[in-house]
């Protein structure tokens, strides 16, 4: 029996035609890609601009003339709550929004009360971060705050039973060393800081605030992740509404504790200007951006966004702020933090 062979030219023609006629990517895939990278660009810009703007807002006036941190955080939580409600209304209509709130929040009080724990910690965390940026430059804050990755990893192992690979443990060690290098005292800083003992004290306050906020961020983030995984039927926006509702309550409570007497004499909006309102809007957008990244992106891309944000904050701090003098130890520490962030995410 004889088999008729197909010429190479024809077979190659068939191969080319078959490959060229491959179906294009569906529009849903294209839109999801746009959403993924759009969310990452948004959170990179939001994080960078928030840190720089917040730092500028605390530097432009003396502590006695500056706005109250507690009131700014309270307003940002209200704005975040309204944004989440608006998104849910757009997705489900107003009647659908009311039905979802009744079904998922009012009729499930035990589930809602579980959100109180991360809400309280988020509120403390936000106040600590305002305190940190009052006492630290934006670049040092950005790099040092990556210490929260170590705390998050430890709490993930404890609460979520996540096993860390040898590579991830090495990345955490590298991150710790990088943060230490960023905070390492040097002659360049000593010359400038020795003229003011108060400046040394404020830097210590900022560092303590970052460490404490890293612990609150790590635990609250892992705890919230555990709640999301245990109740997958609930919408992410419903969870955010629950979260911001409690955050509003706790933020108002902190106003009464910390600044009630000063607000009575100076007013709720004392020290507010255009920059303050921009800080509030950016702070409110932060929660929305994180929600979008959680939904549409992954940890590797989020780590990339964090790295870009650190680089941008460092560049702008060098160019526009006089309180930041980068040294060799800072550059080395920043490089180690960036590398460890990538290594841990891979």
TrEMBL record:
Membrane topology: Multi-pass membrane protein
Principal subcellular localisation of the protein: membrane
Keyword set, alphabetical order: Membrane, Sugar transport, Transmembrane, Transmembrane helix, Transport
CC per GO annotation: Golgi membrane
Cross-referenced PANTHER family: NUCLEOTIDE-SUGAR TRANSMEMBRANE TRANSPORTER (PTHR10231)
InterPro entries according to UniProt: EmrE-like, Nuc_sug_transpt
Localization: Membrane
Protein name: UDP-N-acetylglucosamine transporter
UniProt keyword Transmembrane, yes or no: yes
GO terms for MF: pyrimidine nucleotide-sugar transmembrane transporter activity
Pfam families: Nuc_sug_transp
Family of this protein: Belongs to the nucleotide-sugar transporter family. SLC35A subfamily.
UniProt superkingdom: Eukaryota
Species this protein is from: Sarcoptes scabiei (Itch mite)
Transmembrane stretches, start-end: 34-54, 66-90, 143-160, 167-184, 204-224, 236-255, 275-294, 301-318, 324-344
SUPFAM superfamilies, per the entry: Multidrug resistance efflux transporter EmrE
């Amino acid at each position: 029996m004889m088999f008729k062979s197909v010429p190479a030219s024809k077979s190659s023609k068939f191969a080319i035609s078959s490959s060229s006629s491959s179906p294009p990517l569906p529009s849903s895939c294209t839109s999801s890609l746009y959403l993924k990278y759009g969310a990452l660009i948004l959170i990179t810009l939001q994080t960078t601009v928030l840190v720089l703007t917040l730092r500028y807002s605390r530097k432009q006036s003396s502590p006695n003339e500056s706005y109250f941190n507690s009131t700014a955080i309270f307003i940002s939580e209200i704005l975040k709550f309204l944004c989440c409600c608006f998104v849910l209304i757009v997705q489900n209509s107003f009647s659908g929004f009311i039905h979802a709130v009744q079904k998922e929040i009012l009729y499930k009080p035990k589930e809602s009360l579980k959100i109180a724990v991360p809400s309280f910690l988020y509120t403390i965390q936000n106040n600590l971060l305002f305190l940190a940026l009052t006492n630290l430059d934006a670049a040092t804050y950005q790099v040092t705050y990556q210490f929260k990755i170590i705390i998050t990893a430890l709490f993930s192992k404890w609460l979520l039973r996540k096993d860390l690979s040898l590579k991830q443990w090495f990345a955490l060690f590298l991150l710790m060393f990088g943060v230490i290098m960023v905070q390492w005292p040097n002659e360049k800083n000593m010359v400038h800081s020795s003229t003011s003992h108060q400046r040394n004290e404020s830097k210590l306050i900022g560092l303590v605030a970052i460490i404490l906020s890293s612990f609150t961020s790590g635990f609250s983030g892992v705890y919230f992740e555990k709640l999301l995984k245990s109740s997958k039927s609930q919408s992410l926006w419903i969870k955010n509404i629950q979260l911001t509702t409690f955050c509003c309550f706790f933020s108002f409570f902190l106003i009464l504790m910390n600044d009630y007497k000063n607000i009575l004499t100076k007013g709720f909006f004392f020290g507010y200007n255009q920059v303050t309102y921009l800080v509030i809007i950016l702070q409110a957008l932060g929660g929305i951006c994180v929600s979008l990244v959680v939904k549409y992106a992954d940890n590797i891309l989020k780590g990339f966004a964090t790295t870009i944000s650190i680089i941008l904050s460092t560049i702008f701090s060098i160019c526009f702020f006089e309180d930041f003098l980068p040294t060799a130890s800072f550059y080395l520490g920043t490089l180690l933090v960036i590398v460890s962030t990538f290594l841990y995410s891979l």
